[in-house]
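[job 0412] stage=complex_fold ligand=zinc ion status=START
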Amino acid sequence: MKRITAALLIAIMTASMFAQEKMIPGQNKFRQMGTEFNTPNAYRTASGAPGQLYWQQQANYKISIELDDQNQKITGEETIEYINNSPDVLTYLWVQLDQNMRQKESLTLAITPLQTRHMRYDFYKMMFMGEFDGGFKIGSVSNGEGVPLPHTINYTMMRIDLPQALEPGQKTELAISWWYNINDRMKMRGRSGMEYFEEDDNYVYTIAQFFPRMAVYSEVEGWQNNQFLGQTEFALPFGNYEVEITVPDDHVVGATGVLINAEEVLSPEHLRRLEAAKNSLEEPVLIVTQEEAEAAEKNKSTKKLTWKYQAENVRDFAFASSRKFIWDGMGVKFGDRTVLATSLYPKEGNPLWEEYSTRVVAHTLNVYSRMTFDYPYPIAYSVHTAQIGMEYPMICFNGGRPKKDGSYADRVKYQMISVIIHEVGHNFFPMIVNSDERQWTWMDEGLNSFLEGVAEREWEEDYPASMGTPSEIVKYMKGDQSNIAPIMLNG
Ligand SMILES: [Zn+2]
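[job 0412] stage=complex_fold status=DONE, emitting structure tokens
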């Protein structure tokens, strides 16, 4: 942690030195940061550490969803147990409806410059001109006894009014049902969504922001109810999750948390291989082979299976599901605990993915744990996508795909390794150290990019690392002054 603080300090000091010595225009952008911070109090000390009266809200979820592979939609219901640990009386609660950024009257369109809209016409045609019916379709919002609760949906945020005020130390229950159409990520992008593979007529689903999620209430911001416009990421309270995911019975699923009914969803042979993977500390073991995945691609079962997961004290939940998935894993030791480093990828990811993905996950957990604290979760997934990188607790979606004939440029390989390090690294910031990404992008991206550089240079001597050393800020500081933005900026 010391080295991280040092890097940040060097960056800030370098900034102020440039400003003083050269008297460059824009120096006022690098004024001292003291006035930006909140006054120390009983909740937060001057060092930023929790004070004596520090509190956090808690939201525990029981979620049950079905992934409809025929129509590419998700239907779900949930109960949220919301615990008011604050000293304040709450008369309403805010819930996040992130999928609504894809509804037709989305604010995302309103803030996108016209020029950008022309450049990505397909995206906007799908999203806003009637070809894609996006957004959450909310069925019901009620309390634990089924009594409907008055609520107001304001784009990606929903305010639920409580019939009885929630006193400090009390808890309340919300029950919400919904469905939504899954976005085709290859056509209209998105942090989560699906990819269609025409050749075998199958989908890979990488799914997040799929359920109404509690907003954060803190003594600094009050309710963090800034809209989700697609750019700035997320602010979420910690809680415990019990999630049931129903999918076609030939799908392989990976998710945040521990799979608690492995005996029901995996064959004895797959269970045996999963166990072997956990015990393999040197190299990955295949749990579902490419041959098995290719057979499932052709058979397309119509039966269903429910995968059940539990996750304790996490700020979010995501999952991936497909009959195309090859699955491998290996163990990583932390004291007497073994964490499963694991990957899910279709045959289109090979030969890159079987060679590198799980090894990179294990390497990242080792390097980041040494630099910060031992990885506390039981599992870490890397899931293949065509080109994006996006992180969630215990699971992330990563790009890096060879050409059709299996060949790839070095650049593709290193980009893939970098994105896996980066997204697995986000487990530490912001998933475990739970910063408010909606407000402060630099907190998790800054710390994570620095450690990404460390992990890259330890992966391979002369790794073509593109970030992570303090000297690299010089390039930025010497750039066009009118483009330089202050660090304390909203994403
Ligand atoms: Zn990032």
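The chain is about 25% helix and 30% strand.
[job 0412] exit 0
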